[in-house]
Amino acid sequence: SAPEPVYRIGFSQCNTDDAWRRAMLAGMEKELSFHPNVRFRMLDAHNNSDLQQRQVRELIRQRVDLLIISPNQSGPLTALAEAAYNQGIPVVILDRRTTSRLYTAYVGGNNQEVGRTAGHYAAQLLRRRGRVLQILGTPGSSPATDRDLGFRQALAAHPGVQLVAQVEGDWQPASVLRRLPAVLRAHPDTDLIFAHNDPMAQAAYQVARQQGLARRIRIIGVDGLSGPGNGLQLVEDGALKATLLYPTGGEEAIRTALRILRHEPYVKENVLNTMVIDSANVGTMRTQTEELATQRRDIQQQQRRLREQMRRYASQKMTVYLLLAS
Ligand code: FRU
After folding, report:
1. Cβ 147 under 6 angstroms from ligand 1
2. 320: three-class secondary structure by DSSP
3. Residue 27: which of 310, 277, 295, 224 has the closest Cα?
4. Sign of CA dihedral 106, 85, 255, 229
5. Model's pTM, two decimal places?
6. Where along the sequence do coiled-coil regions lie (predicted)?
7. Would the pLDDT of 198 be above 80?
């Protein structure tokens, strides 16, 4: 059969410095290892929407065959994602959304659902009475907006549970360590903290401990990654009461991209599921994700060996050919 054409995929990633983004990239690379005909170029916007705009413009200028974008904030990236789409470059939106429907496909979680699930779980933990504090992700980034919306929707169904304070975070633990202490001192009777991701939830735990409140305050995060220092371990150690699984979608994004590039049928909205991970199921979750990680490593090793053999085979064939020709 004819060899597959070379495809150039450009990926505009909002940041690469946390474990969740690294897990996303690992998933993408695993999937890409099956497609040596893909040239993959990732540009890291370092949590900066201006820089991300420039990088997306550059990828458009290079006329990549397909663009994957995980927008730092929705507003600043919407017009550019639309422009790429309107110029005929397929656009896959990953995890964080723009505010437009002009894209080829979306891969990621339902963040309103993440917020709602967290809210109902919180109310159940508190036996429907208590004071809650929320730590949000970057303003204007769609998971922060949607998790907040869903969380409030769920709490509205439980009048005994009050949202007493909010801390505007930026997905990063450092800002929680800076901003939470004063807010928590003003609300020492807080019963529960919902943080929009596990790194911020972990920082909240640190602050609660410093103020001698770690025993009373229950903390819920989002992401549920395996590996040292990540969500599953924080739940196992009891620092977090629970975390909401938020799959990275890295593998699905590459799979969807390839279907689009090959003009195969694909799904426009690829919504990945969430679930509560707490002490009841964290052990099972960890075993499963570790098994998956081992399988992923095995597959990549086999792929590498296979490619090595192909190379050797090709050069042997060349030698035989040269011998016969001489
Ligand atoms: C990683 C992250 C995750 C969060 C997601 C939301 O950069 O902050 O922790 O779930 O982005 O887009």
Report:
1. no
2. helix
3. 295
4. negative
5. 0.92
6. 285-316
7. yes
Pocket test for ligand 1, best of 95, 110, 147 (most atoms within 8 A of CB): 95
Cβ of 222 closer than 6 Å to ligand 1, yes or no, is yes
Length of the chain: 326
What is the ipTM for the molecules in this complex?
0.96
How far from 136 is each of 10, 167, 200, CA to CA, in Å?
29, 6, 9
Per-residue pLDDT tens over the stretch 147-183: 999 999 999 999 999 999 999 999 999 999 999 999 9
Q: Which two tokens stand for residue 316?
A: 């042997």
Beta strands (DSSP E) in 35-173 are 38-44, 66-70, 91-94, 105-109, 130-136, 161-168
Question: Is residue 20 within 6 Å of ligand 1 at its C-beta?
Answer: yes
Residue closest to 47 by CA, chosen among 153, 144, 160, 170: 170
For residue 20, report the distance from its CA to the centre of ligand 1, in Å: 7
Residue 291 CB-density burial (10 A; 0-12 exposed, 13-18 middle, 19+ buried): exposed
Share of the chain above pLDDT 90, in %: 87
